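re the bet — no i am not wrong, look at it urself. input seq straight from the record:
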Amino acid sequence: MTPFSRSLGPVLAAVSLLAGASAASASTVTEFPIPTPNSFARTITKGPDGALWFTQFDSLAHRIGRITTSGAVTEFPLPGDRGPLGIAPGPDARLWLTEQKTNTIGRMTLDGDHTSTTIPTANSNPFGIAAGPDGAMWFTEETGNRVGRVDVTSGAVTEFSLPNADSRPRGIAAGPDGALWFTNWGGDSIGRISTNGAISSYTDPRIFLPRSITAGPDGALWFTNRDSIGRISTGGAISVYDVTASYPAHATVTAAAAQ
């Protein structure tokens, strides 16, 4: 079962497709209510404990949620109105967060203990976050127009400016080539950054408002487009697949499937 998180009110939905059957006839949707009303659940990931962890962005919620595969939900309040958006497991058995309203990167233990690091660029609007192959956490800064790196041990942040001032990077994922790949929502392109900060950009007229991105089982990166799902190989070859559902770019794709 591969989970998707979508802004559908205080409900998490798990979607399972049976192999060998059509999506229309074999889709099973189970919804799990979130205890906090109007929590605006945004991003979900598999945690180091085997459960699913998700962010609750709304200012009245400012919580991190945990849900088991059987649907039991636990919520962990964050200090203040932080606006948690992105979430990803780190190499230190903790959950790492992008906190938009405080311009910080948060770190939380499985018991809910929370600390944070301020991003040097003010009002950078941190968005996506992912563990890198170098043992650090990498994140995007949508209005800061940067990709950042935070050291897991020291908390030191390094920022890399993007060459296109209209990039507005959002999703980010580690690729099978040892680099980080990210979506440029404003620049209608896919970016790649090496762990030493070298940046490449890939464009295609079929890329439009890309948002989320994840590494696929085929050695490529897959991303959500405004009206389609895109695939980019590590060599930069791009394919785009139309979908019938409206606004697929509002869904968050995660590679961490709950087995």
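see?? The chain has one helix and 24 strands. told u. also The CA atoms of residues 7 and 40 lie 6 Å apart. so pay up
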